[in-house]
Predict the 3D structure of the following.
Amino acid sequence: MHPVPCRVRSVVRELEDTFTLDIEPPESDWGFAPGQFTMLYAFGVGEVPISISGDPNDPSRLVQTIRAVGPVTDALTSVSPGDSVGVRGPYGSAWPTGVAEGGDLLIVTGGIGLAPLRPAIFEILEHRDRYGNVTLMYGARSPSELLFADELQEWRGRFDLDVLITVDHGDQVWRGPVGVVTSLINRASFDPESAVAFVCGPEIMMRFTIQDLERKGITDDRLYVSMERNMKCGIGLCGHCQLGRHFVCKDGPILSCAAMSDTFWTREV
Amino acid sequence: MTEPLVIDREGVDALIDALIDRGYEVVGPTVRGQTILYDTITSTGDLPVGIRDRQEAGTYRLEERDDDALFGYVVGPQSWKKFLTPPGTVFWKGLRTADGFETVEPEEPPSYAFFGARPCEVAAMKIQDDVYLPVEDGIYTERRKRSFTVAVNCTEPAATCFCASLGTGPDVNEGYDIALTEVLGGENHYFLAEAGTDTGADVLAELAAREARDEEVVTARRLVVHATDHMGRTLETKGLKDLLYANLANPYWDEIGERCLSCTNCTMVCPTCFCSTVEDRQALDGSSAERARTWDSCFTLDFSYIHGGPVRSSSSARYRQWLTHKLASWQDQFDSIGCVGCGRCITWCPVGIDITREVAMIRERDIRRVAVGTPAVKEVAE
């Protein structure tokens, strides 16, 4: 339960309020699976769950992308290279990249939801031959709020990855789609009989996305979402993150919609 | 384990002394401000001698008994979690260093002897063991491993008791070092003492106890059986998990929500409720910090708060979470029901919401049955 002090190598400002920290991992043999998170501690201020956004194939770097929305995330995003932050973890379940092998894969995400999917994208591109069509659908509020924009450009240039991007509001130079991320689903090419979807974003966005994907014929056992809940411990002890029978911190955050069939569609569970 | 022994009140005093001699801080029931609380005791004189508690939904009163019973009451608002996971316990302290910070372990906890734990409470500790011990939480785990439990079987359940429905009482089956059964027979006021562990047997061996006569054992057992038949309430557990999972959308939760004050009393008095939060504190000069764990409740808005707002903003959703967790999802999470039938949540609810009644109402208004019934109603209407 003790956070391990870890040195911050670099801090990159991604967006107005979003920063990526490159942290020296707690141990030399540290590793994580795509979709997992850590509990990050700002000395004396507090601890919050933050998903890992780095490359799982490079265990020497713990990369975490943080949006400053409260006292702890404000403190974490104000650190300078050389400062220490406390790390516990990695915790939680992973995107089931293995389950998705052999079929088409849809990655649907909105806003900062791209961060926890980034490790999965790295993983899939590392073993690209194992998948059919892979489509990344990403929605942001505006062109200036596209997270990892350089990387998105690079991924868009690949012949083995379809990258579809939409924004809620375009600007003067935006020539791409405008609208909610679900409007991109019709543009994706996939076989619903075998396709698997990884979805991460605001809960309301995930509900509409799952609804549309189910309508397309993907069954709920092949639809995975990353759930967000209040967490104080990360190890199933504090009780805050409960979602029906699940502790989101240890049974999740990645859960299949089949596992949540009785709770995902019920209000205030 | 060993043959039942018989001790008198002096023997109970000797037992307390023996535990103190072994280095335990003996904590047990004692009267504080018209309520029986758990606190340090040093002799039977500290126990609520000759006191009875009258409990009903939203009601708790102490009354004088016409005997010198040491255990003539059931459970008060506190449970042993007060000692096993004390609110505000520091997890670790952090010190600022030249290149960051380091964490140091907190002080060693005391060794407690829980004196007078009721069977439902012993069962509650077992339930909390399944929550804390696998993760080595550093607070409960340390205290629990050092603890000693003197259980007391129940012979006079309260009107709010329903342990018999859950198989957690009125007699203790496991998880105790010594179990006592008090027999009040006028001149012949005695306690049947039984060891549940080797340590318990060692402690009993130090006392001036004699082997119980057969009729003394029979009398004590009969009193406990009598208690089973006189439970104030019942909770039907058949199909409970499926019932509650299937009734998340039952409109009846809103009716409870209209009564529930979200005061958190039920979760504070519950001996199995384990939800907690952490408090991070920092010295004014920033040189040191610490993290403490304190009790939390699923009835607060903060509990489910994530960026954007709380997940459970209505009190009906919060009550549904509490009850469904206790009785349904607990079974999936820990392989047991998270309720021991102690009745505290009924007694200490300021508006008298009764878990046994609310479950019975959900059962009566099971939306699965209503849904099946709907076409028939339509046919009649047509």
